[in-house]
Amino acid sequence: MEEAIRKGKQCFFCLNNVREIDYKDVNLLRRFINYYGKILPKKRTGTCSRHQRQLATAIKRARVMAILPFVNP
Amino acid sequence: MSKAKSGEQPHYELLYLISNKFSEDEVKPIMEKVNALVTANGGEISLSEELGKKRLAYPIKGFRFGYYNLVEFDMMGENLAKLDRALRLMNEILRQQIVVKVLRTAQQIARDKKIAEKIAAKNVAAEKTAKEKVKERAKEKVDLKDLDEKLDKILETDDLL
């Protein structure tokens, strides 16, 4: 799951021209959290600052709606 | 996430979660109830969609499954708090979330389409080069085998020294 991201060090959202990150897209967001459900740092994923901020809010919104877990024990 | 200009009605997106104690036939009336609530608060619904029954990431009030429903609407900002409160008081709904959605103009959508096509073309080209590389590597491997055989032949001959 994480290897696929690490290959390219360029921002995934910039490459694919994503303007706004949809918080309902589980499969996309799952690539940017680790097993425990924590948000991965941009150092790890290569996401740019602008999209990392958007991504963080999207993941937090998804957590409220039980789309993503808060913690994975 | 920019605020809409004054006078214009901002576009909102509401996602709510109906608990699993209702059967699929019972979800529809609840949906209609929510839509009625939105229109009662001065909202104009542009999209109402069922996202279906899904497993929750964590149990809420003992429920492990729930029905997700999506509503998009235009509404004046002042009524939003009222709508949120009304939804919060509905027992059928476990969670709800209202988010501002920025609508894209037709021009922007067209531009995005063009860029998406370019990206797709690029990806196809990248795949092709990757495949060629794999082929080249396979060739190299064959070459190595030949080399080994040649080496063996040389070693087999007695007049090494």
Kindly state the percentage of residues in helix of chain B: 40-55%
Reported CATH architecture of chain A: Irregular
DSSP strand tally of chain B: 4
- Counting helices, strands and paired strands, the structural category of chain A is mainly alpha
CATH superfamily of chain A: Ribosomal protein S18
Tally of structural domains of chain A: 1
Which stretches of chain A of 5+ consecutive residues score pLDDT under 50?
A: none
> What is the gyration radius of chain A calculated from CA atoms?
11 Å
Under the CATH scheme, which class of the largest domain in chain B? Alpha Beta
Judging from the principal axes of the Cα atoms, what is the shape of chain B?
elongated
Q: How many strands, what sense, and barrel or not for the largest sheet of chain A? A: none
Share of helix of chain A, binned: 40-55%
State the end-to-end CA separation of chain A.
Answer: 19 Å
End-to-end separation of chain B in angstroms reads: 81 Å
What name does CATH use for the topology of chain A?
30s Ribosomal Protein S18
- The CATH first-level class of chain A comes to Few Secondary Structures
What does this structure look like?
The complex is a heterodimer of chains A (73) and B (161). Chain A is an all-alpha fold. Chain A is 47% helix and 0% strand. Chain A has helices spanning 3-7, 12-15, 26-30, 42-45, 49-64. The relative contact order of chain A is 0.23. Chain B folds into two domains: 11-100, Ribosomal protein S6/Translation elongation factor EF1B (Alpha-Beta Plaits), CATH 3.30.70; 105-161. With 161 residues, chain B is of the alpha+beta class. Classes of the chains: A mainly alpha (73), B alpha+beta (161). At the A-B interface, helix 5 of A face strand 2, strand 3, strand 4 and helix 3 of B.
